[in-house]
Amino acid sequence: MNFKVITIFPDLITQFAGHGLLGKAVREGLITLEAINLREYAVNTQGQVDDTPFGGGSGMVMRPEPAFSAIDKIKAQHPDAKVIYFTPRGKQFGQADARRLANSSPTTQCSEKTSANSASDKTQPTYIILCSRYEGADQRIIDELVDEEFSIGDYVLMGGETPAFVLLEAVVRLLPGVLGNPESTVQESFSHCLLEHPQYTKPREYSGLAVPEVLFGGNHAEIARWQKNQAVNDTLIRRPELITKALKPKAPFYLALIHHPVYDKQGDVIISSITNLDLHDIARSCKTFAVDRYYVAHPTKALRLLALKILGHWEHGYGLTYNPNRSEALETISIVTDLDDVILAIEEKHKMLPRIIATSARRGPHSTTFTEMRARLCLSDEPHLMLLGTGWGLTEEITSRADYMLEPVDGRGDYNHLSVRAAAAIMLSRLLG
Ligand SMILES: C[S@@+](CC[C@H](N)C(=O)[O-])C[C@H]1O[C@@H](n2cnc3c(N)ncnc32)[C@H](O)[C@@H]1O
């Protein structure tokens, strides 16, 4: 692989490329790296490469002539060379870009496999990295010559050389022969959508700080399990979006609407009434988001019979001819007595207990965010059951059985008294949509 870095500070690049594994890759001919002084293509003998911006404004702009001349010259030798330009306006450079440029071929968006490249030669790809300074490059350079525009983050640096270093480090370490152990690039942050597990080295204890015991047992399966758990948990807490961007929720998902025990507005425990709208609207949301089953739990036989009568009207009666779509949604409903019935039904089907997600309009100290919960649903094969309360919400008796307490749906203001139907639709959209 060949890199041609165009810059007004070529010494910076050559210095950088002389060290560490990058230096080794150059010395061993795994890559070629050439720093090209843009001033050699300056518009006058004073070495001018920039000028004042049209339309006014502070700072200077890189003129087109030097960049066009420098790139034309490289392309005469390497017609297929790709031009990369760094700018805060570019797409954020990530590990997936590094892999693509390194000519790796991941099997999935997140899995990490490198394909074998031979040592660099004329047939290897050539990347021209154009480093700008000042206010950036004249847009005509970008429009005509640049193949990819990258940013390295949402901050403004003084020039494109640091981003060029970032790209060189990220790409070159992925090339075969550069790292002593190529396995290092398989199990590391961003492989399989996860951050890497924490690392420890000697001494075993330092100033009373101990290394986790599991790492000393010599049980490789147990160590691997510990490392995987750490990686998963750290990613869920620190960067759940790494998971949600790449994967879809796959866990079986159930919803239960609880009518007892729930609070009334005085904080007393009551049985609330079944509401026709909650049957219809939540079932329609469940059908839309492919919820596996919508359980309506009510302890009173008369109300369960009333609910069944309503369902019968739409599933078998006049309602079916009037609006067949509705019966499709209402078929997702099961009328049951209480939470234990729901858990039993799910356990029978999956041969395991569901992970329970309680919901509330009140924010608790250990609320799980929607992004984290969605990420968990992307990684898990276990059934999950989300509980919605009626009245003034689920009682402590119910929430204490939950594995997760989902954060409330908040709006712009302080008011968050949504109907349970509206809350259900919003939550399902965030978790499964
Ligand atoms: C002072 S910056 C120009 C910022 C530009 N006027 C703007 O507001 O978008 C000078 C050069 O540094 C490089 N640069 C600065 N911040 C960067 C970032 N976050 N990612 C990539 N390149 C950056 C770019 O090459 C940029 O043209």
Number of helices: 16
The CATH class of the largest domain, by name, is: Alpha Beta
Q: Give the tally of structural domains.
A: 3
What topology, given as strand order, has the largest sheet?
Answer: 14-13-10-17-15-18-16
Q: State the total count of DSSP E strands.
A: 18
Overall body shape: elongated
- Name the beta content range: 15-25%
Q: Into which percent range does the helicity of residues fall? A: 25-40%
What is the residue-averaged pLDDT? 93
Q: What compounds are bound to the protein?
A: S-adenosylmethionine
CATH domain fold name of the largest domain: Alpha/beta knot
- CATH architecture identity of the largest domain: 3-Layer(aba) Sandwich
Rg estimate, integer Å: 30 Å
Largest sheet report: 7 strands, parallel
Give start-end ranges of low-pLDDT stretches.
105-109, 111-120
What is the terminal-to-terminal distance? 42 Å
Supply database-style keywords.
single chain; 433 residues; alpha/beta; Alpha/beta knot; Trp Operon Repressor, Chain A; seven-stranded parallel beta sheet; five-stranded parallel beta sheet; binds S-adenosylmethionine
